[in-house]
Amino acid sequence: MSILESILLFLHMLGLAGILAGFLMQVMTDNPKSVKVLLHSSLLQLVSGLLLVGAIEMGDLGELNHVKIGIKLLLSLAVVVVGIMNLRKPSTRLATIAGVIAVVNIGVAVFW
Ligand code: HEM
Prior knowledge:
mainly alpha, Four Helix Bundle (Hemerythrin (Met), subunit A), 85% helix, 0% strand
C-alpha cells in the first residue's frame, strides 16, 4: 500500500466516523452544528473515496471491484443529498436516513 493510498484511506475512515458522529449528535442532542458535521463528513467521504479509486488505479495498487465501487458511489451520493436536505431543513429523520445509508455502505465495503 502506497503512502498516498494510506493517507486517503485514513481520511476515508475519518469521513465515515464524522458521518456517524453527526448523525448521533443530531439524534441525541439536536446540536445545531451536527448538520454541518454530517454534511462535511459525507463530502470528505465522497472525495476521499474517489481519490482512493484514482490512486489505486493509477498506481496499479490492486484490483478494484467496479460494481462494488459504483454501488458505494451511489450510496455515498445519497448520503450527500440527504445531508444537503438536512442542512436546509434539519430533521432527525433525515439524519437517521443518512446514518443508516452510511452503515449499509460500510457493509458493502467490508462484506462484498
Ligand atoms: C458513506 C460512504 C462510504 C463508506 C461508509 C465507505 C466505507 C469504506 C470502508 C469501511 C472501507 C475500508 C474497507 C476495506 O478496506 O476493506 C472503504 C474502503 C474503500 N472505499 Fe469507501 N466508503 C464510502 C464511500 C466510498 C466512495 C464514494 C468511493 C469511491 C467512489 C469509495 C471507495 C473506496 C475504496 C477504493 C476503498 C479501498 C479499496 C477497497 O477496499 O475497496 N468509498 N470504504
